[in-house]
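Lecture 7, part 2: worked example. A protein chain together with glutathione.
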Amino acid sequence: MVARGDLDLAFDDARATIHQDFAMTESTIVVHGTVLSGHTHRVENFLAILGLPYRLEPAPMDVRQSPEFRALNPLGQIPVLQDGDLVLADSCAILVYLAKRYAPGSPWLPEEPVAAAHVQRWLAIAAGELKYGPAAARVITVWKSPGDLAAAHAVAARLLRFMEGHLSQTAFLAADHPTIADIACYSYIAHAPEGRISLAEYEHVRAWLSRVEAIPGFKPMPRSAIPE
Ligand SMILES: N[C@@H](CCC(=O)N[C@@H](CS)C(=O)NCC(=O)O)C(=O)O
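Predicted complex, written out as structure tokens:
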């Protein structure tokens, strides 16, 4: 672990800058999404951690199919962020935008090339193994979406084994402090049991979840009931 004192100051500086910066804008940040979407939760959680006010505009499936929503994101996916004139889709792209726009130079998204690459690696995993493993298993289980549950469980098992080994060596995914990589990966790992994926054997992953939950401003995502 690094000295938390310096890091705390760096995170505090970021929050202070955000408040000065945001107070000078007229804009209201709007997030189009749903409270049970892990992709939306990544964005809501980071906004809450940064202390940025925003409004959640509910975008369930019927809304996502509307021409108005397709004008925001032709892929029909949530989340979509609106910040002034900016319309931005994709949860990881939004995390990058928020870090660079409201917390520039902060530890959330390091500038140093290797550190930045470590963050990007986990953002790619968030859009890959995490989506096709734990997130897919949850959608198939909770919402009875079509899909191959066994295949999703296999992807999840490989990912969790990798994360368990990795997190036995480091406190957070991409550094020894939290970055947007942790925000991107938290939601669907924390809610993996809703896809019938037990975290019982992954003690380092569970300890990491607790560390993310201890970040000031952390916003939980509501649990979904697992059908019988
Ligand atoms: N790469 C996108 C994926 C987002 C995504 O898959 N969102 C889901 C809800 S959690 C969705 O809108 N699915 C509807 C669809 O794909 O048609 C992101 O990270 O934002």
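The chain has a mean pLDDT of 94. The chain has two domains: 4-102, 113-213. Keep this in mind for problem set question 3.
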